[in-house]
Sequence to fold (475 residues):
Amino acid sequence: MFANRNRKRRGGSGGGGSGGGSGGGGGSGGGFYEASGSSRNYDTDGNDLSSGGGNFSSSSYSNFQGSGGGGGGGGSSSSQRGPGPSGPPGLRATEREFSQRCRLFVGNLPSDTGEADFLALFRRYGDAAEAFVSKGKGFGFIRLRTRMLAEMAKAELDGTIVRSRELRVRFATHSGALRVRNLSPQVTNELLEEAFSVFGQLERAIVIVDDRGRSTGRGIVEFASKQSAKKALDRCRESNYLLTSSLRPVLVEPLEHLDEDGILDKHLQKHPQYSKERECAPRFAQPGTFEYEYAMRWKALEQMERQQKETVELNVREAAERLELDVEGAHVEHQAMLMRQDLMRREEELRRFEEMRNSEAQKRKMMEMRYEEERKRREEELLKKQKEQEERFRAKFAEHGVQQPREQVPGMNQGRQEGFVGGGGGGLPGNHGNQPGFNINFGQFANPQVPQMGVNPGFGPRADSTEFEAKRARF
Fold:
């Protein structure tokens, strides 16, 4: 289907067969196909159309296992495995498989090329995660497993003739790649990846360094999807994204994809301007000529532009240095202000704590006072209830016309005793109303052995039964 141009053999050289799978005097050593002719045509299955037979895939690309050729002595099988599902070569520890960096653009395809024919071109380079062919427009995209396989396919298939059409193979533009500027010298690949992984899955994040390994302040981040890249771009443009303690925010912009292969004369369109400019060969302008005069004007314009750029860069650099000094001073002042605010906050907390403690003490004191007042009130109520009970008790006896017991009436027992001592039967000094000096006995006190209410223990009931009966008749 395609023809290989003359290329440098990547496999082993002939002769004695150098080790590592590069042996083989007359064979296709090293596992890489080496075209013997300058232009050979193949069909979509890899069959050599110019010689009339021979399976291209099985005879020339022995699965990239690196087996040595048949003529070399001492050649051994290579320990490096070729491309394919079992072991992709060149896969770095930080590289992700099937990333957009492994995506190729294939142009100038025959208009009737289908997806199966398109995949057959890249069959020897392992599995493909994405394959798209635009029928009628003559282009397609494919994503291989690793970057090394993609570079290998690009180097071998670019310029290949497929049915009288020369293929153009280029790396596809990475739609999720962004350029990051204003990076601090302390920013590393790991920190850059950690900072931008919040917007989506990353495929790669690197800080660009110079030939001495020092950071240039620029970096590249590559997202797995275009949506994540757009989210990061919009978010960093709308606000200030700081990666370190430095207050200089990073600037994010889309990464411009540049093709390092350049442009060939055969790919340039031959319009009238092309013919007009290419009619003269490269030369140096001679002094005093028309060409020299206007060439010097162009040089003067370029020099003026360079001087203005240098002036602007110098002004920007001086302004940046002044801003850094202002930032340092403002940072110190800001820290002092934060310390003052923290001190004021602590003092305010201490004041509130003292107020709270005083308030708690005042509440406890008021509670104690209320408790004491409540206790006094209860004692007063208790005394009042006792007095009311005594009053009701006295009123109850007064309603029935019965004297209170001698224990309740002061001087009653004393009057009774004095009456017996004096020997008189009249009113006793201890009695109220000058009543006779005897007690009234109710029916429940009929037992002469039980001491009677209001009677001293040393005296029994009166013997005068007539008076006793008369008293009972009153009740």
